[in-house]
Amino acid sequence: MLRSKMKFLPILLLFIAATAIADDVSHDDLVHFTAHAGSSFALQTIFYGFNKKALKENTIKSEGLALLETLAIGLIYKASEHAPLGETSVSMAENVIGCASAIATHVTFDF
After folding, report:
1. Is the dihedral of CA 75, 76, 81, 84 positive or negative?
2. Are 63 and 48 in contact (CB under 8 A)?
3. What is the pLDDT along the chain (111 residues), one digit of tens a residue?
4. Which residues are CB-neighbours of 50 under 8 A, at least 6 positions away?
């Protein structure tokens, strides 16, 4: 029983962390964060499903490959914008948070 409840811990921790930083952030920064984290969450989930179902990879390989694919797309996108290194670093950190949220969701719900 306790183990099944513990599966929700990663999602709860991510929610608490996102809520805690929201107090000191402007609306525009929060929208920018949500856009990066949300798109990364979606891409991570799509790539994970493709790698697992179409390529028939195991769960760990599927998640790792999906993470690599998602972050590569984020980096290519930022490079195409000719963004400065500081902005790229912040955006990639936001992408990592979105990917981590997707992985936590996949693990929690045995997707």
Report:
1. positive
2. yes
3. 445 656 666 667 766 666 666 566 777 777 888 888 889 999 999 999 999 999 999 999 999 999 999 999 999 998 898 888 888 888 898 899 899 989 988 888 876
4. 66
Residue partners of 60: CB distance under 8 A and separation at least 6? none
Sequential DSSP letters for 17-67: HHHHHHTTS-HHHHHHHHHHHHHHHHHHHHHHHIIIIIS---HHHHHHHHH
Q: How many CB atoms sit inside 10 A of residue 111's CB?
A: 13
Burial track 76-94 (b if 16+ CB lie within 10 A, e otherwise)? eebeeeeeeeeebebbbeb
Those residues with Cβ within 8 angstroms of residue 101's Cβ, 6 or more apart along the chain or in another chain: 11, 14, 37, 41
Supply the pTM of this predicted model. 0.79
Q: Please, what sign has the CA dihedral across residues 6, 98, 45, 73?
A: negative
